[in-house]
Amino acid sequence: MEKRNYRELGNRRPGGFKKDNADKIEMIFGLRPILEALAAGKTLERIYLQKGQRNSVTADITEMARKAHVPIASVPIEKLDSLTRKNHQGAVAYLSMVTYLPLGNIVTSLFDEGKDPLILVLDRITDVRNFGAIARNAECLGVDAIVIPSHGAAQVNGDAVKTSAGALNRIPVCREHNLKETLDYLHNSGIRIVACTEKSDHSLEENVDLTGPLAIVMGSEEDGISPEYLKRSDLRIKIPMVGKISSLNVSVASGIMLYEVLKQRLLQR
Fold first, then answer.
1. Is 68 left (phi over 0), alpha (psi -120 to 50) or beta?
2. pTM for this structure?
3. Which domains, ranges and CATH numbers included, belong to the chain?
4. C-alpha to C-alpha distances, 243 to 10, 234, 240, 258, nearest whole angstrom
């Protein structure tokens, strides 16, 4: 179903579509339009449902969103009213600016082509500009796919795409429901899990081998990488620093890590 039909749908019943000028992405409001967008296979970035509202349609939306790994937030009506002045019926959603792709298909395809996958896994990177800058680094430095969690990740909105300089339109993004299972899958597929963390005895200047199939894990600036993900890493590496500030911006750190991987790959050729 094309967007034109959704707009017609919005004219026939309460709810519909409009442009969110702040984020430059399409907003859907109303229970039925959101349900039918899910049924049509549209990629939704996030769904907001009014807290305490329960009926058969909200139940269907919740179930379909769960299967599609679309984050749902239960929010007060004031939050919904701040998003749109239209008759939202207690439901607002955003269409995604990117199409999320299955990680398994990407990994299989890369191995079939005889390539060593380079996957970037982001744990709780919530700032959209940091996420956009990381995506730009990833595209420039040879990353095959970016993995983000379905909950606790930055919204892929206009600011993220702009900061990425269009990289988010070029590099595959995979939204995974359970990063622990994702890391286990990557490890079992023969991909080494490398965590960039200060909680390591290995430093990047030690010429650590970063060739072959790799998944680089970057964590939030506040807490770093979650302990359950660190446990699943095959190698932990810290970036050497000599200044008084104890940490780098995560987008800068990702650029340093990915450059080292690219440098070693180029030397192998």
1. alpha
2. 0.83
3. 3-95 (3.30.1330.30), 103-268 (3.40.1280.10)
4. 56, 28, 10, 22
